[in-house]
Amino acid sequence: MSAVRQEPKIVGANSLRYHMFCAKKGQIESGQLPPCKDSLMQHTLRANYQAAIWRRSLENLPDVPAPSAGRGWELDDGGSLKIRWMAVLPAPDVVLNLISCTCRRTCRPSDCSCILNGLKCTVLCKLQGCSNMVQDDAIVAQDANDSDGDSDD
């Protein structure tokens, strides 16, 4: 009698990401994982919009809807069209603050997992004082003011 190993049933992009992450025991870069459900949806909306444009390409006066109306695109502050990568936050702020990189000398966009994920480096990162660190002098000043005013009179 031989044991049959059954693979877990994976339904959905988020489940697949989680399964792949666990299979690699967390030793995988985010770029090696498939997109999450929200990111995949935004990509699908952009691809569908592009297909609709191509389908209308031979019409004299095509009725083309605005790309920024929920079709995976958005307008930046200057009015230029840019990709909408996600419609929701990738994770709660508490989780995003736990992400760290292992840079040794400098944090560069090609190597730093924080920069690659569009995040600032944190105190959990290996390299401290890099150019990608959060510069929050207001918090330091507030902490200094709080400690100056502490007295037990």
UniProtKB/TrEMBL annotation:
UniProt-recorded name of the protein: Tesmin/TSO1-like CXC domain-containing protein
Organism of this sequence: Chionoecetes opilio (Atlantic snow crab)
